[in-house]
Amino acid sequence: MSQSGVSIHPDCVTKFNELKLNKKIKFILYKLSDDYKEIVVEEASENGDWEVFREKLVTAESINVKTKKVGKGPRYAVYDFNYDLASGEGSRSKITFIAWSPDDAGIQPKMIYASSKDALKRALNGIATEFQANDEDDIEYQSVLAKVSKGLA
Predict the structure, then answer these.
(1) What whole-number distance in Å separates Cα of residue 16 and Cα of residue 40?
(2) CA–CA gap between residue 35 and residue 63 (Å, rounded)
(3) Is the separation of the CB atoms in 117 and 101 below 8 Å?
(4) What is the per-residue DSSP string for 108-151?
(5) Which H helix or E strand runs over 14?
(6) Long-range contacts of 137-145 (CB under 8 A, 24+ apart)
(7) What residues contact residue 32 under an 8 Å CB cut-off, 6+ apart?
């Protein structure tokens, strides 16, 4: 359980292990349930196209529990990021955890997502790298490639 009291649905770990071990799933989007009590799998996809993944983050929505208004929403994501080394020494794969919290998302969702992130990360064993993204530039392919590869791609 997280600091915010949010629990993690068992499917979150099951899908992550499928991504890690079977290598068929390329990304997983996690969200808070509409009542903000549990982290659940929103989508697990075999589509490795970065732009498809990025668009899903950018268009994510959340409901404010008090006002019932729908607005831009934070998400957690895991992406199996593959890249070639610039030195020509082959390719690498890194399971990357992304905490997406757009600057223009509501305050309530951003606070709950921020205080629940570590509980999810602890449950997902095998994350190679992680970063926080707050605007669309943070999740441009080249920007992410530089973070994940530490400049070696």
Answers:
(1) 12
(2) 9
(3) no
(4) HHHHHHHHHHHHHHHHSTT--EEEEE-SGGGGSHHHHHHHHHTT
(5) helix 10-22
(6) 139/54, 139/57, 139/58, 139/98, 139/100, 140/54, 141/50, 141/51, 141/54, 144/50, 144/81, 144/96, 145/81, 145/83
(7) 6, 38, 39, 40, 62, 109, 112, 113, 116
What angle, 0 to 180 degrees and rounded to 10, lies between the N-to-C axes of helices 10-22 and 107-123?
60
CA distances from residue 151 to 92, 99, 142 in whole angstroms, order as listed: 13, 21, 10
pTM over 0.90: yes
Q: What is the pLDDT of residues 85-136, one digit of tens each?
A: 888 888 889 999 999 999 988 888 889 999 999 999 999 999 999 999 999 9
